[in-house]
Structure prediction request, 836 residues.
Amino acid sequence: MQVLLSPQLFIAALILGALYALVALGLNLIYGTMRLLNVGHGEIVMVGAYAAFWSFVLLGLGPLPALILAPILTGLLGLALYRGLFRRLLAHAAVAHRIEANSLLLFFGVSVVLQNLTALIFTANFRGYRPFPGVVDLGFASVTGGRLLALTIALAVAAMAALVLRFTPVGLAIRALIQNRSAAALAGVDTERLEMWSFVAGFAVAGLAGALVSMIEQISPFMGFPFTIAAFVIIILGGLGNLTGSLLGGFVLGVLETYGVALTSPNYRSMLVYGVFILVLLIRPQGLLGRASVVR
Amino acid sequence: MRTSHLAVGIGFFLLLAAAPLAAGSYFLGIGFQLLMWIALTQSWVLLSGLTGYVSLGHAVFYGIGGYVTVLTWQALPLPAAVVLGGVVAALFALSIGYPVLRVRGPYFVILTFGLAELVKYTVINIEAALGKFGRLMLGAPGLPALYWSMLGLAAAASLMVLLVGRSRFGAGLRAIREDEPAAETAGVPAARYKLTAFALSALVPGMVGGLAALRSGYFEPQQIFSPTISFTVVAMAMIGGSDTVRGAAMGAAFLVLLSELLWANLPELYMILLGLMLIGFVLFAPAGLDGLLRRSMPR
Amino acid sequence: MRLLTVERVGKRFGGVAALNEVSLEIETGEMVGLMGANGAGKTTLFNLIACSERPSAGAIHFEGRRVDLLRPDQVARRGIARTFQIVRPFRNLTVGENVRIGALFGSDTGRPDDGDAFAREVLAEVGLEQQAGIFAGSLTLSGQKRLEIARALAQRPRLLLLDEVMAGLTPKEVADAIAMIRRIKTKHRLTILLVEHVLSAMMTLCERIIVLHHGRKIAEGPPETVARDPRVLEAYLGRPS
Prediction:
């Protein structure tokens, strides 16, 4: 029981929660604005992690340039995928549920390609590096510099995103787009442009999260899926387009996972995450929006 | 499907049945793989092709069947152990089916994937608790016997899709795929039909898993519950054409060939091609190889 | 003989009452119209009778047996069929297959062989026999509306609920639809409850009209009486200025 009261564990839960919130933010943006179900979202995190790792280790850039390079790279990847694949899907599929189902298969294809391409180029081995090995004493607990950095940046970016969405014209346009696409278009929102930028921003944020993950954990080409699952749990829990909801959901899941594993054993981590995921889906079978299946 | 097509199908299976008499064990091994994927893909089509509930977790039935067979094959007569694997997989589908099949569309897809992973990690933990890290299966029957059994399963699965497709049951499943509430309003008992399709679609993969475990002579949960199996089945059905017997067989044959060429040396490249093909077919040829074939051969 | 009894039925969505203590009775062989502005609760009432939704209060009896707790497919087999205001054909099935679904599942006797013959017959009645082989999604709107009627007819219902089958049709098509509804009613010995925004059509077709307003029944009677009822005029046309 002593372990549960340790501030160390609490910080670990906080870090995991902040990273989860960041990953869910991007997924939320892409699903909310376009109804695209990015089951490859975790792979974008993975690509961001590799981008940061290799710019740090191979190119010898410092950790901060790595943190900028990773989101730019994944953002560009998002731009290419949007232009190459998803604009076509959005333009051609008339029925909403077709978009969701087809986007899922497309993203699944993309995720398999990314995983194996990474494995082909970088091998499937686990890799890690420690840019900030020093330990910072916070008074009630001590953490490594990397973990503190990850926590700070994740919180800052999530807060910034919340502010942008809440108080700026772009944020208003995005919220309008999430609520009702055709009404937003009628009100003068350039929906296509906004969708493209939401797509790119979602990918960039996932890349940033990946770069942060790479500084605190070992990375591998197959590290992505747990993040995808976590992000889905969070946006089903927190609600679509609801940023405070997904922030909260991120921390709830972070705490649940960290303390659940501490109480049992690391062997049960996957069971725990998948168990929560399944439970959430069974309790809210109508999915993320909470749309009731009313016959009209 | 016209009678001439049926004749081609029967001829195809007869030819495969004669294979062990002529082919060496290398080709027989490929044949075993081909038949295995045909059986799995046809079973998937029965649920996902007909009802539109796309399962990305069919590995769970394959894995459960394999696990049951591994646990019982020394205590039971071999065919009984294999059949038991199928029955347990179908019962598993029945027991989780009701809540799971209330989840619709893309959420069903990710739910099935999550379920399969949950079962995989559960079995891994059970095995670890038992102190087993992989099980060797010594004294399994030889390849020709397994091959003929697999042939039987592939034929049974194909026949099942064919018969269901023509029946009242199949018409109801297609109506569910198109518009479930409207189908219910027209009198289709959607919940019962979906559950039946789910259980039927788990039966053959359960038995296939048993045979596959016997063939490899080694059981390891990471492998037998691997999500790659689920993914491959979906890719085969999408590439072949997702709701016909012929399409599923073509998709399986195409990918088995491709994997034979690439898997041994370049597994990553194989997976990359698989992903690219899935993307290409979803975007450009949603009716699959079967659809392309039909378009190029006017009736 | 009494076919349908709706008894003090209510339906709430969250805090909003879509229907409040609505009661009505329909005799076998009647053609009854349901009238009301948008949001008056007409479609909700249809959903309750067809068991697409459960009432929050009250009960519904069909042929003397309670039906409001059944599933939609069960009540369909008991003999109630409906069309949808926003059409819901099975788009990637052919017109013939659409109707065949109704024939196979609408009643307990459905068998593949006798379903086919009956489906062809019903298609001819709504004028779609030429289109039996094409995909339902490629029909015109008017064609899809007729297809919905055909699918419902193929279920061999005793009560048919028609939800705005004439909305969006040209005057010529409306006239054809009126004639067709009369024809099928006689031929299949149906009882019909219909919602229609084309008021003239409703006035011509129905022997009796029920008016809903904000989820309550405010008037009921022969068309000419209802049309002169001051409460109806106020609800429908707004307060006279």
Observations:
- Chain A is about 75% helix and 0% strand.
- Confidence is low (pLDDT under 50) at residues 288-296 of chain A.
- Strands of chain A lie at 135-137, 142-144.
